[in-house]
Amino acid sequence: xxxxxxxxxxxxxxxxxxxxxxxYLALLNMPGSTATxxxxxxxxSDTVAQRISDRYQLESHPVQGYxxxxxxxxxxxxxxxxxxxxxxxxxxxxxxxATFELLGLALVWALLFGIPLGVLAASRRGPMPKLxxxxxxxxxxxxxxxxxxxxxxxxxxxxxWLPPSGRLNLLYDVxxxxxxxxxxxxxxxxxxxxxxxxxAIRHLLLPSLVLAVLPCTMVIRTIRAAMLAEMDxxxxxxxxxxxxRRGQLVVRHALPNSLAPMIRTLTLQLGQIVASAIIVxxxxxxxGIGSWLLSSLSQGDYTALTGGILALSLVVIITTVAxxxxxxxxxxxxxxxxxx
Length: 340
Description:
transmembrane; MetI-like_sf
C-alpha cells in the first residue's frame, strides 16, 4: 500500500507542476503587463515593478521564472485581484465554501437517489428497470444549463416553490465562521436563525438538485452494471442455494461490492461535475467560485482568474487521489494488484 501511495503522490506532484506550467505560459501571453498579470498590482511604481521582477525572475531565463512562479504560488501568494485590489487567496476563502456547500449537497442527492435506483434498475422484473435506464440516458444527455434554466422558469418563477437565484435573503446578516451557511446560521445564536436556515435550504435546493442530475445518472448506471455482474457470481449462487433471501443477498453482499466501481466512476467524472457546478452557479447567481471566475474573466482580472483555476484544479486533483485511495481500500482485487 505504501508503494501505491508514493505513486499517487508522485502523480499529484507531476500533475500540479504541469498545470502550473500551463498557467504560467498563459499569464506570459495574456494582454497587458506581465508583471501586473503575475502579481495583480496595477500601475506599479518603479520600485514595486523592480520588486515584482525580482520575485518572479522576469529578467532571467523562462525556467527560472517558472520556478519562481511555482515557489510563489505554493507559498500561498496568489497575487492581488486586479479588480478589487484584495489578495486572491482571501477572495477564494470567501467564495469557496459556497461552492463546497453546493457540490456537497448535490453529491448527497446523487447518492441518496442513485444507489437505490441503481439497485432497482439491476432487477430483471417488470418495466421499471427499462424506464430507469432510459431515464439515465436522458439525464446524462440533457445539458446542465438547459436543466437549470428550465428549473428556474418552472419551480422558481412559474410555480414560485423555490427561490430562483441567490444564496440567502438579504434581510439576514449571518456572521461568518466556516463560510458554510448551513453551519454558520445555527452557530449564530440569533433569534431568527431557524427562519434564516429554512431560507438558506430553500435557496440551496434548486441548484443542488439540478447539479445532482449528472452524478445521479452516473451512480445509477454504475450501480446497475456492478450489481448485474455481482449477482451472476458463484458466491451469490452459493448463498442463494443456502436459502438466503434476495434482499439479504443484495444489501449484505452484492451492494457493498458494487460501491467501489461507483467511487471510481465519480472519481473519473469529478472534473466534469465541477465544470457543471460553474455553469449552475452562473445560472442561479450562486456566490461561489464559478460565478467569481466568470466575473474575473469578464473584467480581465487574469491574476484572479489563474489563481482561482489553480485552487479549484488542486482541489479536484487532491480529491481524485483521495478517492482512488478509498477505492483501493474497498476493492480487494485492486489491493491485490497493488501489492503484486
